[in-house]
Amino acid sequence: MFNKAKAFLVNISISFITVTILLVIIGFFYDIYFRKFFKKPVPFTTGTLFKDIHSDTLLGYRPNNNVFNSGKKIFLDTLIYNMAYHLDGHGHRVTPDSLSTNKKFAAFLGCSFTFGDGLNDDETIPFYFSKNTKTFKGYNFGYSGYGPNQALIKLQHDSLNKIISQKDGICFYIFIHDHINRTIGSMSNFMINKGKAPCFEIEDENLVYKGLFKDAHPQRSSIYKRMGENGFCRYFNIGHPFKLGDKHFELTGRVLEEVSKEFQKKFSNDKFYVVMYPSINQKDYEADEKIIEYLKKKKIKYLDYRKLFNPTAKGYNIPHDGHPTAFANDVLTKQIIKDLKL
After folding, report:
1. Where do runs of H (alpha helix) occur along the chain?
2. CATH number of the CATH domain containing 66
């Protein structure tokens, strides 16, 4: 039995080393001879967009306080968007015309979809929610590249209950499929944040904070870095894990469960909802069903909008960018208000 296990480990190691060497060789020839044939044009930004950030020992990175940033995103000769945004004294995006006299709060957690990449302050999800209800003050606690792991850290350590002045309200986590990759620390996510993201793992049925991913998994981070620098891997999106599995869905669901619990503890109410954003394709739709199954099992409130609209259709996403348009945000918030009878 021992010899079989030893032989299996040796074979796995040899296979891994062989694949690694092969990728290095292919990457070398790609970089030297073929890069010019496969090179893709990429958009670029001007101005100060997303530059006022700093490292954070818990979140990995966070935006600076009291910032006004503006700039353009351009693809070839086409203007993709021209945006400006304000960050308040806590580093959160300002939601204009959201009056402090409003009786209730609406807190939004999430990523760039929540923050509003490509949009002005008066085009975000929190803005439209506040505008369309007129009774809720919108709070935007999302930021580009964040996932459920950052949402949990923010609720645990950012004293959001002290930033919010209203006593009663509601909280939404805007979920997109890629948040699974962000929660588990996939290679695709590592190449964006370099491992500067909170790492949570399940140990003995407990959710444990392990620090930042780059520190919790230095060897894996080194491999991801090397593969990410390989032009062949980048072009053909070769990464890890190769396929999402049950343990990845469970970890993501578990983090969302803790976000829900933390909100209830800090705000003394259970009005927390995971909003499943419209799916880009059928594959993502089916994979996210695993997240919904977990939410159901744990009795976590959710709004399933995976089929609300086609997020790739004209008018719903910013061309050459993929983020939601102001119109998409308006449609989404009106559906939330309708379904919750707010």
Report:
1. 2-29, 35-38, 112-115, 125-133, 148-157, 160-163, 179-184, 187-193, 213-216, 218-228, 231-235, 246-267, 282-297, 326-340
2. 3.40.50.1110
Model pLDDT, residue 14: 56
295 token code pair: 């939410």
Answer yes or no: are the C-beta atoms of 139 and 170 closer than 8 Å. Answer: no
Q: Is the pTM of this model over 0.85?
A: yes
- Domain assignment present for 11: no
Q: Is residue 15 part of a domain?
A: no
In a domain, 23, yes or no: no
| 300 and 275 Cβ atoms separated by less than 8 Å | no
Examine residue 122 and state whether it is found in any structural domain, yes or no.
yes
Q: Peptide bond preceding 41: is omega within 30 degrees of 0, i.e. cis?
A: no
Tell me how many domains the chain contains: 1
Using one digit for the tens of pLDDT, what is the confidence trace for 82-128? 999 999 999 999 999 755 567 899 999 999 999 999 999 999 999 99
Helical packing angle, 125-133 and 326-340, nearest 10°: 50
Per-residue pLDDT of 43-80, as tens digits, reads 889 999 988 899 999 999 999 999 999 999 999 989 99
Q: Residue 27 and residue 236: Cα distance in Å, rounded? A: 11
Is the separation of the CB atoms in 300 and 330 below 8 Å? no
Tell me which residue range forms the domain holding 166.
42-186+241-340
Q: How many CA within 13 A on the CB side of residue 66?
A: 1
The CA distance from 75 to 64, in Å, is 27
Reported confidence tier of residue 9, pLDDT bands at 50, 70, 90: low
Amino acid of residue 338: K
